[in-house]
Amino acid sequence: AGFGCLASFTNYGGVIMKQGLKKICGCFLILIMAFPTGACSTQHIFPSDHHTGGQQQSAVKTLSLLMYTDWYNSGWNALEKYINTNPGKLGFKLDIQKIAGGDQGNNILTVKIASDDLPDLLQYYGPSWIDVNCNGLDKIVELDGLESLNQYDQNIIDAEYRYKGKLYAMPIGETALMGVFYNKKIFSNLGLSIPQNWDEFLQTCENIKNAGITPVFYAGKDIWTLQTVAHMGFTQDILESGKSSDEFWKLINTNKRKYIDNKNFIDMIQKSKDLIDLGYVNSTYLNDSWDDAQKALVDGTAAMHICGNWVISLINTKYPDEVDGIGAFPEPMPNGDNYVNMSLPTSISITTNCKDIDLGKKALDYIVSKEAQQIYVDAQPGLYLNREIKNHLPSATEDLKEVMDSGKVMKQWQSNELYPYGQFEVNITKFYIGEIDSAEEVVRLLDTETGRNAKAKGDPNWEN
């Protein structure tokens, strides 16, 4: 079914959704430099590149754009090709540069911010993230006068892309919904129904294991993926508190509630390890990558993978003929109150390294416009925020959207913290391999790191 926008986000329980699943940046300097990103370079476009009635065009500038490798998908590929074959019409070209995802990429970006080695345009997790985790807000240019702005829901723009009263970014990419992605053929062949609670989920895993198939694929080589099973426990803690997500986070960000108080969160961290101990996870999970997870889900060597619907975007890019063979359902909770987590799209901004800010704004305005976003979505179906595009959703995304539309949706817990809480994904991995003794200790470390960073900022809420 066509789906052009998410204008009704703010209707879900009064919660304004904010961008979530992020791989926290440690914000320490490392001696890694990658992909030099000089400011707007100039290329001369001749009639062989673009016909101008025999006249050479004036110089067209090439703008550099940096993103994580995982974010370069079919949509970006199609849009990049269109832009770079129509420089005369658009007035610019793009040089898209990529860095690794996860902590490695976050650390590289931190170094680039500190050494003033940024591109003209940057795709990243958002203004609040770059401020809190990388101290880089002063490297981002304030946006004003964008013609495309009225194509978006202003409540969503204000909640996520406007920061400290200023518009620093616009959304780029898909809205993510988290759930369990499964191979439909395996479920059909084994006569399996969608599990409605954790006990049913474990029984489903047992049935799949008995059939000689890996029930759940973990991609520990890309360490950030290992935190996903535990996320929905945090949502249960918010629900049980009787508070909105924003009210809940206000307590945490003023030291009136600790991470260690979130018992459902701790329980789901333990349950994510139980899956390993029960033999329901691929035995080589520490060496298996996210690419391996996508392939296993498609070829049926694994039945399920717990992640966000960006996994469907990548399957659509790599295995377009197989994407509708994947379905999705909410991660089953012990009490059967099953929600999906949502995170809004990543951000695109202009950096202070861009020597032609007016051209940078023109390029960014075009990239997020309905014309450019339609090119993007035609190649990369998914959930997008531009209200004027037409779209067709892959079946797995449609599955989770139906849950969202029923009101069973909560914003992703990450990206709401005022102070960095450390490397959750590293600590959860240490718990899996026995270097950390308990799920409680994994969560207690979040409090320890939060307190350290709050005290470093002189926050009086952490004085005692």
Structural class: alpha/beta
Strand content: 5-15%
| Count of individual beta strands | 14
Report low-confidence residues grouped into runs of 5 or more.
1-57
As a percent range, the share of helical residues equals 25-40%
Terminal CA distance: 55 Å
User: Based on CA inertia axes, which overall geometry fits?
Assistant: globular
Average pLDDT works out at 87
Helix tally equals 17
* Rg value: 22 Å
Description of the structure:
The chain is of the alpha/beta class. Helix content is 38%, strand content 14%. Strands 1, 2, 3, 4, 7 and 13 form a six-stranded mixed β-sheet that branches. The longest helix is centred in the last third of the chain and has 18 residues, at 439-456. The protein is globular. The model is unreliable at 1-57 (pLDDT under 50).
Blueprint (SSEs and pairs):
Blueprint: E1 41-43, E2 60-68, H1 74-85, H2 87-90, E3 92-99, H3 102-114, E4 121-124, H4 127-134, H5 154-161, E5 162-163, E6 166-167, E7 170-172, E8 176-183, H6 184-189, H7 198-210, E9 214-216, H8 231-241, H9 245-253, H10 263-277, H11 290-299, E10 302-308, H12 310-318, E11 326-329, E12 340-343, E13 346-350, H13 357-367, H14 370-379, H15 395-405, E14 409-411, H16 424-432, H17 439-456
Helix pairs in contact: 1-14, 8-10, 10-17, 16-17
Compose a concise summary of this entry:
38% of the residues lie in helices and 14% in strands.
